[in-house]
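Submission sheet (multi-component)
Chains listed below:
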Amino acid sequence: MDARFIPEPVHLIRFAPELLLTVFATLIMVLDPLTKEGEKHRLGILALVGLLAAAWGAAVAAANPGTAFSDMLLVDGFATFFRYLSILVGVLTLACSFAYLKREQADSGEYYALLLFSIAGQCVMVSANELIMIFIGLEISSIASYVLAGYLRDDKRNNESALKYFLLGSFATAFLLYGIAWIYGITGSTNLAEIQRVLSNRDIAPSVNLIGASAALMFVGFAFKVSAAPFQVWAPDVYQGAPAPVSAFLSAGPKAAAFAIFLRVYITAFEPIADQWQAVLWASALATMIVGNFAALLQSNIKRLLAYSSIAHAGYVLVAVTTHSQIGTAAAMFYLAAYAFMNVGAFAVVTHFARQGERYVNIEDLAGLGQRQPVTAALLSIFLLSFIGVPLTAGFFGKFYIFKAALDANLVWLTVLGLLNSAVAAYYYLRIIVVMYFHEPSESVADLQSPAPGIQAVLWASAAATLILGVFPSWVLDFAGKAALK
Amino acid sequence: MDAILFLIFAAIAVGCGVNLVVQRHPISSALSLVGVMAALAVLYLLLGAEFMAAAQMIVYAGAIMVLFVFTIMLLNAGSERKTDKALFARLFGVPALIGFIVLIGFLIRTLLPKTENVVFGTFTEGTARGVGLKLFTEYLLPFEVTSLLILIAILGAVVLARKEI
Amino acid sequence: MPSSVPLSWYLILSAILFGLGVAGFVVRRNIITVFMSIELMLNAVNLSFIAFSYQLRQVDGHIFSFFVMVVAAAEAAVGLAIILTVFKNRATLAIDDVSSLKN
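Outcome: structure written.
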């Protein structure tokens, strides 16, 4: 009967990265019982191969753009950009994880499999063209992340992190679903393009207030996932309690994917009612920056500080979303890529420094790192300067493009307040640098080994990327500009 | 007849829902939730969702809630302690909740275009056949991807619950 | 007494249940009850989907609520496993006792 029953080969090609990730993750699960204790890191290397294969798959899919599986998926430049970004964050996280898992004696195939599954879910999310696919991709990514956050079962901090992430994440999903139900009821479809068509047709468009209410419910769901105020409360506890490499992953990968669906839904489906949601996003962006930066000033735990910093950076990206212009979208994409590098780099230093059981996670513990391990301290300084937005780092161009897009969209006040926020942020990042170089060495740095090879690789790669994007931003920005939705 | 059935089962659903929120012991809340689900299954039938009504009973009320009850029994969960937050919740939470519901009700009543009356038997596509046809053609990809979700759930439960890492 | 009720009554019922779920999430202090409140919210969402499906005379809403149900099952498996690990390490199910993270 229906020819769509059997998918065409080109549809499978467009779905290649997800298929490859799933195949490799399943292979890891099958090989796990056959691998001896102490040899499990080989499964991690297999996961690395899987990620590289998925990147290749994303390239092949990008060469065959279009929709797949009765419009469920849409492979375009935007999807490809975020697929690459998710996979890249996965590679960096994986490299950090080897040393961590060995140190905690928790090396197992499941960790690698869950990481690959989570990335597969993010790839589904970012290439979804239907609210139903967005929902399922989001859940795949989230459920795998919940487990990763609580991976060390006997660690109380891990438990608490997983519990809070899980409860608040599911709560947010319920709001998202309620919003989707209303959108479905109003427009009769869950296809993003179809929703846009119905909403922009003034003759059949139903009450604007009702659509606004549904968009607001969906906003609650998305705001939770990207840790935007006033729904950011889970982020500090989750990032502080989760294993350090997992925190790096959560604050870069799933967050970027959540921003991707946020952008896609609001820029395509809800574009006809942009003047309604712009005010809400304006307020949320400002509140997110303020909450993130001012709370970060008070932190003494470095993971918690990075968590608040991650909230603040989500605020900057929200400024770009508020513009709902093509350059704003491109700026958000560039910023998310830049942030992924500097954030994973900073967390890699924390992973290295915390040592077994994550004993050393206070900022004061870093005292004397500048003398003891000048290279590590210098690399961390690069990431911190990039967080501030100092010229010649990726963070500078990231902020520059975002605020330029905001000015072009006449968001003058938001730009001024955002820049003031960046100035406040400089204080707490510089404080870490001061502690590293100018404080008396604490006993905690005395027995610090040199970083493990995987962590060194991440540090150098992230620092190089941060500097390269700070000098040649056009390499990524051109891609983002071409891929940005309009 | 439709109206009477709706009113009876809507009242059961709301009553059980309120009971879920006010009970202090988790097992009472769990059994109230089963009540909500059973009442909703009847309403699904009235709306012509035969397949979903059956799935609601088998999957939701049957499988998922048994898992909840089992966990509550396993952990031997007792009643909650009283906290000072309870008074705060009663003072502000109840009016806020009523306000929210009135607001949504108002939105629905005034803004929703053309709501018709629900008559049982006027929509008969929601059978296993109707749902299955859509599920295996148009919604093939989400259906397949869901298997990934369940695989992760199994894997996650194993990671968290097995004896040693 | 009319023989049938308007569809909006179903939607209002759904809103009431959703609101009760939110209230339970905020008020209750037992982790398992908090989780059950989320399940109540998902049930409310399913009622909305099926009611809208009736109005649109499509089965798409049924399929969406079917997926919501599957996801709820997966979430329940993982969520209860997480709750078990918390209980094993802390011997408590009170959500206020699970707050060791901070400064």
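Remark: Chain B has six helices and one strand.
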